[in-house]
Write a structure and sequence with these properties.
Distance between the termini: 43 Å
Largest sheet: 5 strands, mixed
Shape: globular
Strand order of the largest sheet: 2-1-3-5-4
Radius of gyration: 25 Å
Strand content: 5-15%
Number of helices: 9
Order of helices and strands: HHEHHEHEHHEEHH
Low-confidence stretches: 23-27, 34-45
Structural class: alpha/beta
Helix content: 40-55%
């Protein structure tokens, strides 16, 4: 019981005593203190979600925007079961047809390329990388999500970042980078430089689907990945 609850109960009993005895009881109120219960309660993150599974459950039942009406499956995200092993979050734009059918992020051709890109710098969705998207449901015809659709999913992505606590974020493509950084700059201007996302270093690079369309982007994307790995190693060594 908190000190305020104790004080309120004390005042109620004092008044009740006066009524029962036919007179008003005049007394000074003693000092009360909270019971020691706060430390025994499970701490819940500011996001309101206690686990990434809670986020996934909320995403699966979400009807916060029109994309819910056209999805086959929501695609909350994927990574190692042990969040302590996660070093990086890779964040893309939104699910495609393969992802909508499976409920898993980045499983089509672009996803297979992403897995190879991550493996080239010793990252993996099964070991140390959590993969997510700006929106959790597929936009029809794989179109770019609208600002309203992105906003409807923002709390889920923010909760995932807060729970996963990645050392770094890899933003895949223009839509992801613009939403995370709150900018209208294009990916060609954004890529190759590190930015701050609530104290987390963030590096924008090309989306894997862009690399499949234009092979000339593979070289700069590889330079981005090498810079990302070098910065991750630097952070880990500094924390050791």
């Amino acid at each position: 019981m908190t000190k305020n609850e104790k004080a309120e109960l004390y005042r109620f009993l004092t008044v009740a005593q006066g009524w029962a005895q036919g007179f008003r009881v005049e007394t000074s109120e003693p000092e009360f203190a909270d019971d020691g219960i706060a430390d025994s309660r499970q701490e819940v993150p500011r996001s309101g979600f206690a686990t990434v599974d809670d986020v996934a459950c909320a995403v699966a039942h979400c009807e916060g925007c029109p994309l819910a009406a056209t999805r086959t499956n929501a695609v909350p995200g994927e990574g190692p079961a042990d969040l302590r092993a996660i070093e990086v979050m890779a964040i893309g734009e939104g699910p495609g047809a393969d992802e909508d059918a499976s409920g898993r992020p980045f499983v089509g051709k672009a996803g297979q390329l992403l897995d190879r890109m991550l493996a080239s710098i010793n990252l993996s969705r099964t070991e140390n990388c959590f993969i997510a998207n700006i929106v959790k449901c597929r936009p029809p015809q794989n179109r770019e999500p609208t600002p309203e659709e992105s906003a409807a999913c923002r709390e889920y992505l923010q909760a995932q970042i807060a729970l996963v606590k990645p050392k770094m974020i890899l933003a895949l493509g223009r839509t992801a980078a613009q939403n995370l950084l709150g900018t209208s700059e294009g990916i060609n201007r954004l890529r190759g430089s590190f930015y701050d996302y609530d104290g987390i270093p963030l590096l924008p690079t090309y989306h894997p689907s862009a690399l499949l369309r234009d092979e000339t982007l593979k070289r700069p994307a590889w330079e981005d990945l090498k810079a990302f790995r070098a910065e991750l190693d630097r952070l880990k060594n500094a924390q050791a």
